[in-house]
């Protein structure tokens, strides 16, 4: 705490503060530059994130062949058979008749283990003997095979595990579903996967728990004893070929077929109701994907063009803490809105990328059916120069192109190629974005990156160093001012003391 001005009567504290304000002007300018650079950094990173999102979306949609090969399948009897395209690349049509649906193998206890048992009682209380327990189960897999490597051994503690918890472990850890039937007092097990394993069983059970549950060692023995059944394959005729599958759902040529009902009388082959089916391009789905790409592209270039053309208000510099203290909140908001404007005006990385993307969309692709352009599928660049290259869609022409050859539409966007002419337009755009993002990352880094790893970060570090040095210098100057004013006060005190002595001396005479 300093007490000043006692001898001189001057407000030296305020005088020093005013003197220091003048000294702080260069520091305020450095602080303003730092603040503006931080705003720039935020804008660079925001643009970089938007480019990353657009690039990822481009890769997940317009660069995937499956987007353009989406198909609808018309089925004459969808209640009996359903068909959908998963990865089909060619048209799919014909007939299918179902003579048998697939079913799972099952088995039940040979004798009751007790009716109306409280399933929350521990296994020990239910009469299970032994301090530890286990059951080993193997069941048919989704491929229709019984493999040794699929064998699961479930371990439980009879003193703490209840019948309910043991069954839950079996259901979650093995290839079977098990439950206790309180009416019959039996345990029932059903294979999770359907089908018949030729020359083998579909379910095997062993261990102390299997004995306690009165279960046979496999479903074939259980069936012989009247307490089980074997799995059954689905049986059908597909385009004249009689065949089987272990499941009612399977794939042929990239199309998923689900059998729901028998369409053929198993006792009279003449009573066959064939289900016909045929595929076609899913035009609506493909059009929606192209529309979404165009909308996202137009939104992106609109935002980028707005940034590189944003007005820069040079008279509106970042506010200092002292300036903000004298302003209202709304005034600060309006001031900073203009101060932040133009941080990326004429940014060379962005302007170059915009030009590169526009050139890519106006280029040609050497497809398998000849030279292709966006205009061939109904997409053109707007003639309004104020839109800065936004795309427009002629939906009628786009639908015609999809119906005629969806692969052609795919090649326009994402045809893989070894040269620029062979490469699809979306691939060219993504390449341009990736290259630009690398430059933006070198300049502005990513969130959490050390300042030393990118150019703006190094610039900010330089400002921080300047501010630290300048603040140390200001402390030295302020101390010097106080010493100087203190010396002045001391001199005035001495002068006043001498004046008083002289006055006293003359008054005594």
Automatic annotation (TrEMBL):
Gene Ontology annotations of biological process type: bacterial-type flagellum-dependent cell motility; cell adhesion
InterPro entries, A to Z: FliD (IPR040026), FliD_C (IPR010809), FliD_N (IPR003481)
The keyword Lipid biosynthesis appears for this protein: no
Flagellar hook-associated protein 2 C-terminal domain segment(s): 232-497
Chain ranges passing through the membrane: none
This protein's UniProt keywords: Bacterial flagellum, Cell projection, Cilium, Coiled coil, Flagellum, Secreted
Cell location: Secreted; Bacterial flagellum
Superkingdom, taxonomy of origin: Bacteria
Pfam families: FliD_C, FliD_N
Coiled coil residues, start to end: none
Flagellar hook-associated protein 2 N-terminal domain residues: 8-104
Gene Ontology annotations for the cellular component aspect, listed alphabetically: bacterial-type flagellum filament cap; bacterial-type flagellum hook; extracellular region
Alphabetical list of PANTHER family matching this protein: FLAGELLAR CAP/ASSEMBLY PROTEIN FLID, FLAGELLAR HOOK-ASSOCIATED PROTEIN 2
Stated role: Required for morphogenesis and for the elongation of the flagellar filament by facilitating polymerization of the flagellin monomers at the tip of growing filament. Forms a capping structure, which prevents flagellin subunits (transported through the central channel of the flagellum) from leaking out without polymerization at the distal end.
NCBIfam families: PRK07737.1 (NF005833)
Subunit architecture: Homopentamer.
Family note: Belongs to the FliD family.
Official protein name in the record: Flagellar hook-associated protein 2
Record organism: Psychrobacillus glaciei
